């Protein structure tokens, strides 16, 4: 069974081809004029809450959300319960520990690597793991390479690895949710240097405050977070990158002053990269007045000037990539008020549409650049090359149809036939409709969570099919 898309455009060469995908049901043919074939979207910043908080999200629901959002590969953050630090779980009564121990694994990394086996499920998207920088992610003591080094490619003895270990390696380190504390930073950097991992830094530290400090926080009567709380960590870590040569990736950068510091560090040639998230380019702290705690996050939504600076930093290349910081919470938790409600929103299932609306429809970047920001650059950060669509077309397409005299028939496309191609294991693709206008409806999300301020938003740009390993993992076709 197959589905044939006629006249789909390759995202970077603009060649118009026909694409054939394996599919359930009767053979179908679709006029795909105007659709784009691109490497699958990738997100190096997701929270899947598994183990420990699976009432918010699970590996299964999080991966389903990713596939429906056009994502083929994600990096799972370590603020699980227990935290993903590789340490053997000694206390079975500790929160979340029984989920790991009862499945037959003695630490969270092992459990998540073998999640499919443990639960008898086939998770639809690829995922890598991000180890905690501190033990228990508590910020007191650096996590121990003796606990997690064996899961790192090039460090562990890969000849003993299972297929699941190979498929879901530890490729980065973070204490996301909090910045790595000053007191352990040098030891963390030494651990990174010894193992070749890079640091993913949550560059925000404040002891008080719940929303951005300014007219909105005063209007709400909620304690504010000054804008330089982010720059303090960014500047500290830029100095550490200069000193140690360790690659530091800044998460969810949100202020003009941080972008300026990063711009200068990059000009200096330091090993610094950064991301921002859809909400920082689409919303300012004014959104708190409309969406309440659905607009509460950390770092907080900042001023309109910072939002404009975020877009400018995307347009001028200071921002390397877009990540969602997909952070599921229940609506009951979000209803606790500005002080008590947890930070964060989900993002995987509307990120492409929101970013496309603001950035491409807004005239700031091209469709091609948006795919670089959401697919190509995230893949490279995570240490692999995205699927080269044009090379696939070259290698696998049937010859362009020719007439009796050997010349190509005008108006006939080359056919990329994934039902007949050779080794498709590494083929990760997304079919995008860049013109499709749609209304975000959280009730239709595959995520367990509904905490998003974008419900009811009119956006443009929709992922129509997600292909992972040559197979259709999700389809709206
Ligand atoms: Zn964070
Ligand atoms: Zn995060």
Automatic annotation (TrEMBL):
Origin: domain of life: Bacteria
Ranges for domain Amidohydrolase-related: 36-383
Listed Gene3D superfamilies: Metal-dependent hydrolases, Urease, subunit C, domain 1
CC terms in the record's Gene Ontology section: cytoplasm
Keywords, sorted A to Z: Hydrolase, Metal-binding, Pyrimidine biosynthesis
The keyword Magnesium belongs to this UniProt entry's keyword annotation: no
InterPro entries on file: Amidohydro-rel, DHOase, DHOase/Allantoinase_Hydrolase, Dihydroorotase_CS, Metal-dep_hydrolase_composite, Metal_Hydrolase
Cofactor(s) for this UniProt protein: Zn(2+)
GO BP terms, alphabetized: purine nucleobase catabolic process; pyrimidine nucleotide biosynthetic process
Any one GO molecular-function label of the UniProt entry: allantoinase activity
Role of this protein: Catalyzes the reversible cyclization of carbamoyl aspartate to dihydroorotate.
Entry's family note: Belongs to the metallo-dependent hydrolases superfamily. DHOase family. Class I DHOase subfamily.
Name of the featured protein: Amidohydrolase family protein
Organism for this UniProt entry: Bifidobacterium pullorum subsp. saeculare
Lineage: Bacteria, Bacillati, Actinomycetota, Actinomycetes, Bifidobacteriales
């Amino acid at each position: 069974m197959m589905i044939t898309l006629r006249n789909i455009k390759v995202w970077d060469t603009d060649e118009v081809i026909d694409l054939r995908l394996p599919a359930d049901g009767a053979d179908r043919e679709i006029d795909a004029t105007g659709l784009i074939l691109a490497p699958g979207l990738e997100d190096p910043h997701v929270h899947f809450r598994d183990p420990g908080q699976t009432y918010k999200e699970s590996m299964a629901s999080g991966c389903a959300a990713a596939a429906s959002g056009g994502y083929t590969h994600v990096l799972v953050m370590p603020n699980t319960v227990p935290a993903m630090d590789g340490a053997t779980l000694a206390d079975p009564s500790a929160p979340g520990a029984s989920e790991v121990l009862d499945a037959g694994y003695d630490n969270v990394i092992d459990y998540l690597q073998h999640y499919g086996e443990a639960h008898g499920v086939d998770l639809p998207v690829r995922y890598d793991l991000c180890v905690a920088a501190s033990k228990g992610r508590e910020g007191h003591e650096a996590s121990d390479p003796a606990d997690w080094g064996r899961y790192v490619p090039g460090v562990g003895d890969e000849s003993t690895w299972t297929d699941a270990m190979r498929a879901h390696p530890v490729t980065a380190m973070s204490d996301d949710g909090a910045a790595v504390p000053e007191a352990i930073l040098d030891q963390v950097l030494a651990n990174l240097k010894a193992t070749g991992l890079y640091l993913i830094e949550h560059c925000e530290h404040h002891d008080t405050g719940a929303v951005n400090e300014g007219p909105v926080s005063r209007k709400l009567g909620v304690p504010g977070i000054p804008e330089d709380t982010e720059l303090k960590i960014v500047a500290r870590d830029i100095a550490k990158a200069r000193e140690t040569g360790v690659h530091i990736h800044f998460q969810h950068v949100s202020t003009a002053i941080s972008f300026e510091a990063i711009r200068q560090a990059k000009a200096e040639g330091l090993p610094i990269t950064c991301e921002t998230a859809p909400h920082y380019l689409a919303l300012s702290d004014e959104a708190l007045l409309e969406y309440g705690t659905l607009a509460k996050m950390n770092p907080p939504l900042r001023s309109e000037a910072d939002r404009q600076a975020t877009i400018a930093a995307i347009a001028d290349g200071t921002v390397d990539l877009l990540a969602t910081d997909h952070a599921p919470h229940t609506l009951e938790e979000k209803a606790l008020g500005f002080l008590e409600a947890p930070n964060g929103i989900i993002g995987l299932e509307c990120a492409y549409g929101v970013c496309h609306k603001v950035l491409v429809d807004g005239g700031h970047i091209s469709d091609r650049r948006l795919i670089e920001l959401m697919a190509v650059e995230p893949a490279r950060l995570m240490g692999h090359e995205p699927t080269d669509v044009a090379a696939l077309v070259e290698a696998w397409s049937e010859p362009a149809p020719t007439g009796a005299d050997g010349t190509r028939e005008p108006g006939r496309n080359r056919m990329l036939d994934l039902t007949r191609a050779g080794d498709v294991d590494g083929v990760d693709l997304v079919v995008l409709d860049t013109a499709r206008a749609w209304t975000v409806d959280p009730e239709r999300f595959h995520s367990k969570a509904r905490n998003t301020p974008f419900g009811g938003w009119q956006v443009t740009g929709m992922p129509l099919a997600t292909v992972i390993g040559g197979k259709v993992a999700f389809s709206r076709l």
